[in-house]
Amino acid sequence: MLAKYPVLDLSISTGKSSEFVDTILRLGAARSSAYVCFANVHMLVEAQRDPEFRQVLDNAAIVSPDGSPVAAAVGWFNDTKQERVAGMDLLPALLEEAAKRGQSVYFYGTTQTILDAMVARAKRELPALRIAGIHSPPFRPLTPEEDAAEVAAINAADPDLVFVALGCPRQERWMAAHQGRIRACMLGVGQAFPVYAGLEQRLPQWARRLWLEWAYRLWLEPRRLWKRYLVTNSHFVYLMTRHTLANMGKGRRVSV
To answer: pTM for this structure?
Structure first.
């Protein structure tokens, strides 16, 4: 498995993107009922505020450094160079490698329009990819009967990987609740669905290197995301500073 290092006392998985791809596909091939979280600043702050959500992250097989600040914190405070491993980048990489290995995938969440566009792109670019199924659940809590039917449908399709896009933290809670019930490796990739579908643009590489993705998404959806990015990002800086100073005061090497 991938080595993990602490960031704000949460264990973040480390390694090259290719190592993440290989590890995830091996979890899928083993039909391991495991799940993968892609940790950004918002997710880490939520884990500090909510012990139940913190447990969700602690139980994940892989917690990828999705956000640039998270990857930077891993590298800076643990003497190990770590690149950002974002869900938006890993989704197409996993689909490409799954097609090569003959493994199957399932897309769960978001809207039917987005799912159809994803399937169309995958069939066009990766004709060998086995798409076991797709499903857009209703935007409301499911009844126990509905949930059981969806679990049965996913298991009947028998995918190696289940990509989940329900939004954070709903998708992470959903994966944790279905661990042991769904016989596949589940990945909470959220915003990667509309980007892969070609229905939402992503910033160019140079802007991503400057950590500007949050500003771009805030510009697109200011009413929904202003609190997440302005308030949550500030709280993350506060938590990092407090943790760093606390360790310095104890005369120890900082391990954030």
So the answer is: 0.85
